[in-house]
Write a structure and sequence with these properties.
Strand content of chain A: 5-15%
Distance between the termini of chain B: 38 Å
Number of domains of chain B: 2
CATH architecture of the largest domain in chain B: 3-Layer(aba) Sandwich
Strand content of chain B: 15-25%
Number of strands of chain A: 7
Strand order of the largest sheet of chain A: 1-2-3-7-6
Radius of gyration of chain A: 18 Å
Strand order of the largest sheet of chain B: 3-2-4-5-7-6-12
CATH topology of the largest domain in chain B: Rossmann fold
CATH superfamily of chain A: Thiamin diphosphate (ThDP)-binding fold, Pyr/PP domains
Helix content of chain B: 25-40%
Shape of chain B: globular
Largest sheet of chain B: 7 strands, mixed
Number of helices of chain A: 10
Number of strands of chain B: 14
Number of helices of chain B: 12
Shape of chain A: globular
Number of domains of chain A: 1
Largest interface: A-B, 34 and 31 residues
CATH class of chain A: Alpha Beta
Structural class of chain A: alpha/beta
CATH superfamily of the largest domain in chain B: Thiamin diphosphate (ThDP)-binding fold, Pyr/PP domains
CATH class of the largest domain in chain B: Alpha Beta
Order of helices and strands of chain B: EHEHHEHEHEHEHEEEEHEEHEHEHH
Oligomer: heterodimer
Helix content of chain A: 25-40%
Order of helices and strands of chain A: HHHEHHEHEEEHHEHEH
């Protein structure tokens, strides 16, 4: 993996407009820089959803460190060449976390940061849920839950047929694991002994109607994945060092797939959104945006 | 009349395409010996994915393979795609317009003795409702082979619906399928019969019978159901003044509805619909079922006569 220094973290490495080949994104960020980036992404999420007047802040905020770690430290990618064949693939299965993905892609340089404020508007490339046909860097169209792991498995199998060595990451929500298709995909991924795919579950414990345990119990959650043939790694999903270690450990697992269960807090970083299912799918109003941004200074 | 299996034609076509094109991959959900994808599986095990009895997951895997540049063919019975996995077909394939080829077998009621649960009579309505899908219902084994080749050669999502029984050939080996073009199987000026699948043969027989009574019918094979050949329909309405559709599907949402929409918009003429009326069929021999539910050449003949009564 190329590690080259950048004048400013978060920018694509290609500096010349005439350069024929886009360069790989620098993955040299320090933990402190990534933590600062995580805060920046949270500010984007609040601002974007506040401006749009609708959207899903809770599940975007809980996944921030997961995407920060992947895009700024682990994944091989080229923001100026989103279709680069050798890139690692990130599949967002929980499509309602689109604002977080857009903010991350913008900060990497896939498109201008100013464009984030067009979220959900007519003619915007930033749809309410992800659309792979119009947004640079978006691998899968999602929004209907339960489908991303199957899609990621297909990409991983194509990788295997072609003898390439890219890695596929799929981010699921814990509530999403109510869907039967997730377990069909879990069964199949283990059946095919796929080890170039890492699943991550944003285990924030909540879904629209309340706590998972009240809506539809998932316990024993780690046990279910293990029973389906997966190596399970559990971490604090807001600790970037723990996430880095977990992803590296997952890469070493051979002959079976690995899932990282990232224990997170829904709405993380904004006190009145934390563990508050009301902010699963409700935008903050003007006053709430102001309060949230103050907390994220 | 020689009868040839359309499923076998599909299996052999896949095998041939698999040799020509390394990007062709095949998925099945525990029915590979019925859909005949087993031919491909035996020859190219590294490009065949047995998904088990999990159609929703199969659709997602196929979408991922297509996104990574493969040309996946996913097969099972027509009751299971799109019925069992409609939302997966919708969001993972249709919305991003991915290059996935869905080929289903055992469509319609000619599946026979397995009964109601296995008789796919809603699939065309469901799949045609999805923007961007190309939908083909071949009339025989030769057209099946041609349709599969067209699917590989054309970027975008395809649905090809086959039936279980062997079908009499309506084409010779020299037939070349043209995507989106209705095939005029027989000329005539009194009325037009527009048919798909196994009803094409019935339409030809009906036209032959009617000719003995002095009624000359044009017969169109609308094998590309979507995008439908509007020009051929409009021309048929203008030149023959009456249209009868014939399909092994519910009356609502399939060929009849789609033709009626074109006719109503471009050239209103009397129409009749030979199709399954708002009901489910039961177990029985295919021929018994086709007769019981009104899908024979006699039903087509009756349809033509009814339409002609109202023709100006």
């Amino acid at each position: 993996m190329a590690m080259m220094s950048l004048p400013e973290m978060g920018g694509p490495k290609s500096t010349s407009a005439t350069s024929v080949e886009a360069e790989a994104f620098s993955l040299s960020a320090s933990v402190a820089e990534m933590e600062a980036m995580a805060k920046k992404l949270r500010r984007h999420i609040i601002t974007m959803i506040g401006k749009a007047g609708s959207g899903h802040p809770g599940g975007s905020l809980s996944s921030v460190e997961i995407l920060t770690t992947l895009y700024f430290k682990l994944m091989r990618h080229k923001p100026l060449d989103p279709q680069w064949p050798d890139r690692d693939r990130f599949i967002l299965s929980k499509g309602h976390a689109a604002p977080l993905l857009y903010a991350t892609l913008a900060e990497c340089g896939y498109f201008p940061v100013e464009e984030l404020l067009t979220l959900r508007q007519i003619d915007s490339r930033l749809q309410g849920h992800t659309d792979r046909t119009i947004t640079p860097g978006v691998e899968m169209s999602s929004g209907s839950l339960g489908q991303g792991l199957s899609f990621a498995l297909g990409v991983a199998l194509a990788d295997r047929i072609d003898g390439q060595d890219y890695r596929v990451y799929a981010l699921l929500g814990d509530g999403e694991c109510n869907e039967g298709q997730v377990w069909e995909a879990a069964m199949a991924t283990a059946h095919y002994n796929v080890d170039n795919l890492t699943a991550i579950v944003d285990n924030n414990g909540q879904q629209i109607d309340g706590w998972n345990c009240d809506v539809m119990s998932l316990d024993p959650f780690a046990g279910k994945w293990q029973a389906f043939g997966w190596k399970v790694i559990e971490v604090d999903g807001h600790s970037i060092p723990q996430l880095i270690d977990a992803f590296k450990e997952a890469q070493k697992v051979k002959g079976q797939p690995a899932v990282i269960i990232a224990h997170t807090i829904k709405g993380k970083g904004v006190s009145f959104m934390e563990n508050n299912p009301d902010f699963h799918g409700t935008a903050p109003n003007t006053i709430e945006v102001e309060l949230a941004l103050k907390e994220l200074e | 009349m020689e009868e040839v299996s359309v499923r076998e034609a599909y299996g052999k076509a896949l095998l041939e395409l698999g040799m020509e094109n390394q990007d062709v991959v095949v998925l099945d959900s525990d029915l590979s010996r019925s859909t005949m994808t087993a031919f491909f599986a035996r020859e190219f095990p590294e490009r065949f994915f047995e998904c088990g009895i999990a159609e929703q997951n199969m659709i997602g895997i196929a979408a991922g393979l297509a996104a990574a540049g493969k040309i996946p063919f996913a097969s099972t019975f027509a009751v299971f795609i799109p019925g069992r996995c409609f939302d997966q077909v919708r969001m993972s394939i249709a919305q991003p317009g991915l290059n996935v080829k869905l080929v289903t077998t055992h469509g319609g009621i000619s599946v026979g003795e397995d009964g109601t649960s296995h008789q796919s009579i809603e699939d065309l309505s469901l799949i045609c409702s999805l923007p961007g899908f190309t939908v083909i219902v071949p009339a025989d084994a030769i057209e099946t082979t041609e349709a599969v080749k067209a699917a590989v050669a054309t970027l975008g999502p395809f649905y090809i619906r086959l039936c279980r029984p062997k079908l009499p050939l309506v084409y010779g080996e020299d037939y070349r399928f043209k995507l989106g073009k209705a095939v005029t199987m027989r000329q005539g000026g009194d009325a037009t019969i527009i048919a798909i699948g196994l009803m094409v043969k019935a339409a030809l027989e009906a036209a032959r019978d009617l000719e003995r009574e002095g009624i000359y019918c044009r017969v169109l094979n609308m094998s590309t159901l979507k995008p439908i050949d509007e020009a051929a329909i409009t021309q048929a309405a203008a030149e023959t003044g009456a249209i009868v559709t014939a399909e092994e599907h519910l009356e609502h949402g399939g060929l009849g509805s789609m033709v009626a929409q074109v006719v109503a918009k471009n050239r209103p003429v009397p129409m009749e619909f030979v199709a399954i009326k708002d009901t489910y069929a039961k177990s029985g021999k295919p021929s018994e079922l086709l007769e019981r539910y009104g899908l024979t050449e006699k039903d087509i003949e009756q349809g033509v006569k009814s339409a002609l009564v109202r023709k100006r």
